[in-house]
Design goal:
This protein is mostly helical. It has five helices and no strands. The protein is flat.
Length: 100
């Protein structure tokens, strides 16, 4: 069983700790106290910590053309069915069985 856990805490009480467009007004003590509220054992179980900048609203609402499902299916099928001189490398057959 696999469990995905995502957390989205702000870097500080005001929420502007690493924001390039807004200045954080929190003191070092406030930031330290805010971040220490997340318990150590919980943080020990989080494998990857990624800081993601805010995305502007206009970028979120902009229309875009995504790749169609049919095109993705075609790419996946091509990747799963190798051809040519490298095809033998990608078979599911063990090497000892392929030699006979």
């Amino acid at each position: 069983m696999m469990l995905n856990c995502y957390t989205v805490p702000h870097g500080c009480p005001c929420g502007y700790f690493s924001d390039p467009k807004h200045e954080c007004r929190c003191s070092f003590h406030q930031i330290h106290r805010y971040r220490s509220k997340i318990s150590g054992p919980l943080m020990d179980h989080i494998d990857i910590h990624v800081e993601v900048p805010a995305v502007p609203y206009k970028d979120l609402m902009a229309e875009y053309t995504a790749e169609s499902s049919a095109a993705i299916k075609q790419r996946v099928a091509a990747a799963c069915n190798p051809t040519g001189s490298n095809a033998r490398k990608y078979t599911a057959m063990p090497r000892w069985a392929a030699a006979t």
